[in-house]
Amino acid sequence: MRMVKMQSINIPSIALGTWSWGTGASGGDAIFGNHLSQEDLKPVFEAAMNAGFNLWDTAAVYGMGASESILGSFTNNRNDVLISAKFTPQMAGGSDNAVEELLAGSLSRLGADHADIYWIHNPADVTRWTSKLIPLMKSGKIKYAGVSNHNLEEIKLAASILAEEGLKLSAVQNHYSLVYRSSEEAGIIDYCKENDIVFFSYMVLEQGALTDKYNAKQPLPSGTRRGEAFNSETLGKLESLIHVMRNIGSKYNASTAQIATAWSIAKGTVPIIGVTKLNHIEDLIKAAEVELTLDEIRELETAAKETKVEVRGSWENPMH
Description:
Number of domains: 1
Radius of gyration: 19 Å
Order of helices and strands: EEEHHEHEHEHEHEHHEHHHHEHH
Shape: globular
CATH superfamily: NADP-dependent oxidoreductase domain
Strand order of the largest sheet: 3-4-5-6-7-8-9-10
CATH class: Alpha Beta
Largest sheet: 8 strands, parallel, barrel
Strand content: 15-25%
CATH topology: TIM Barrel
Number of strands: 10
Low-confidence stretches: none
Helix content: 40-55%
Number of helices: 14
């Protein structure tokens, strides 16, 4: 598998997401319509690790600890797993030590003594929360710091706060897909490349809308956030793009999901792909091998732009 350098470690070209693991507030049932247990997911975890996908992305807010607890039951006592966890400012309450306290809770659920990457999940009070990472980085509780859902100005501010203490911002994680390229348009991806920051792209498959499994006649699960975002009308608008993805995929014997993932890798990002089934791991093995040509990348991006579809999450601020 192709690897990506993040300072002193090598990480896989694809990270694995666990947003839909477990149930509860902001969990897999509410967002995705899934009801996945430890028993369902253990074989998925093992297959991923065997294939070399060892970077797992989670957050305390996913199912309010459910995702972390399931992942922790698999990763406990393993030293070959890389953990990406998050501090969500909205969970801080009134505590000024919330970053330390929430990290401790995450590490306890994950059965880990440190987070390989720890993210500030969104830009609520960048100065206040970024500074709270510093003692945790110096003590080794956090190896690499990242920010998620931050715009370019906020990323630069976070980087400067860490730099004042001789520390580095190592990663940025934003929504980025064929139909949502605002981080690229705002200059964030270029800034990351210039400053040796790894850009992680989430919602690369737009929560299933770019997988060719759903369309206007076969919509996403009703009563879920993704079903509301990508309704029948929006899925209809995506059909022309799906057609192009299918055509390009046929050259590589690859699915549209694999083409969307390969595109995000070709753009110099590390996609975070949610995995819930064994065939998802097989998909990622294939996606990591596909190397799109510049012409194919242009064709995909042109088709995506022509759909005029752009769905931003309710939690996201514009990047411009």
